[in-house]
# Entry
Amino acid sequence: MTERTPVLSLRGISKRFGAVQALDGVDFDVYAGEVVALVGDNGAGKSTLVKVMSGIYSADAGEYRFDGQVVDVKSPQDAADLGVATVYQDLALADNLDVVGNLFLGHELVHVGAQLDETRMEQRAKELLGTLSTTIPSVRTEVASLSGGQRQQVAIARSLLGEPKVVLLDEPTAALGVPQTKQVLELVRRLRDRGLGVVVISHNMADVFEVADRIHVLYLGRPNGDFQTADTTREEVVAAITGLRSNGREAS
Amino acid sequence: MSSSSAAVQSEATPMPRSPREFLRRFGQGEFGSLRVLITLAVIWVIFGLAHDRFLSAVNLTNLSLQIAGIGLISVGVVLVLLLGEIDLSVAIVSGLCAAIMAVLNVKHGWSPVLAVLVAIAAGAAIGTFQGFVHTRFGIPSFVVTLAGLLGWQGALLWVLGDTGTVNINATFIVDLAGTFFDDVVGWIIAVALIVVYAAVTLNGRRERLRAGLEAPPVGLLVVRIVAIAIPVVLTVWIVNQDRGLPLALCILVGFVMLFDYITQRTRFGRHIYAVGGNEEAARRAGIRVGRIRVAVFALASAMAACGGIMLASRLLAVNQSSGGSDLLLLAIAGPVIAGTSLFGGRGRVWSALLGALVIGSINNGMDLLAYSSDTKFMVTGAVLLGAVVVDAATSRRRQKAG
# Structure
């Protein structure tokens, strides 16, 4: 895998908030067609790193490369323009709108004039949800009446409308029941099969081992190991998260 | 008065498959407009039994004239409620704008058309100002428009000056509430409405089929078209037995249809619902939330101006109590009674018309029965309370189910 160019690559990223060094020289790569889990204890810097990737924070130091090119990402719009989509934990769905309304929110298709082109939006929504094999009953269902897993699916599907190359998922399975978690992980796999680079932040080791190809551990704002899921064990990863082991395979 | 449950239902709401599902969804607050239609039917039956003139052509024509002004104000109120905001200044702004129109026309000799246009523009400017203060400084709309309620009251007195009352006799303004169409014209308008509605409905079905989407069966659409046609035909038939179709009613229904189109079928309307449903989601989706808010407050005050002009036309005068009394409370209570949520994001513009009908019917009926204001206020209050209690109960049930 390492011969290929990562679609998104961070080199030596540092970020400081006042006295707190949130990130300190973090390297992070995502390849196309790969699911990377970003794990770490509370305060390890996962959220900060995701916010750097999604353009909400700009790093104090380090390089942001996209498709091998060094780029300057200053705002969420910059990241979105490159092809980095983010699905936040709170999903940001409008409960009172239906699935189609939420998918196209802010990017509605219109006829000449200003009338909404509901037919074309519904068509594209069906196509998209169909290829993702989501479990949403009807694209005209009001989002308020969907389950947590279905809402997560809507939020993920919406991020795909901009044809991104990398999707960042912040705790996609938090607060979901077992069958719903399964549906969402299924969807994550299908994103990978579409050739997207997928970054999943998670606390749940079971989910991480089920869906991730690679596991990247942060500990106190520094990288603390990068494991191929197939070659590692849960104990090894947990040890890295808790700082019992540092810097990958070297024991402390 | 051309509304029905079918019209207020979104095209896409799947029909219930069984009576039990219908009852469950009814209980969860879907078919909200059906509930208000039932309320309205109950009120009409009660007053119809209590007084033989309530359902007469003369009285129903009067009712439509009585609700025109307040209904126009309520159209703007619905837009503000959809954002989850409130505008306490609508009634007094309606009075102020009517006063501006009357003074420009009567005291300054402006042409009535120009005076009306300037009055509506003044309303839009007032709304823009209030919306700007609300968004720019993050002050709750309740407080901004409460200040407006006081301030514009002062402006109204100032505009009217020493005279206190300005009588209107310009034909153009008087005719707004005083014009009745010939029977034939009434029927032409009715047929045109039904034909246009049928064409839009059937064309929508054809477009969906062509796009390979499932479409409702023709039979269902025919039921829906008939459901619209019946109240339209009935209305015209009834008013034609009296003086004919009032222009005021056409203006009210026209504005309701216009704003229903804007809120349901345009990007701007979709964004109003989005901001009312989840402001943060709207902002992250790239919607300029502040602009939407200012635009809605501007439209609400402009509609208040239209309502004020209509009320002045009916009264043939503007005075110091224009826009006062219970106008504000009734203009807000109407849409809420008809199912528009105070918490934003839920409701239809039609609720302005239906709510005005409910409140207007209560007032009209109790006037006929010679009840005094004390009873009228208590009954209207009880209906409002009942409506919001039902609204709260159903939305809680919906959350539980969701």
User: Anything to note?
Assistant: The CA atoms of residues 302 and 389 of chain B lie 31 Å apart. Residues 56-179+246-349 of chain B form one domain.
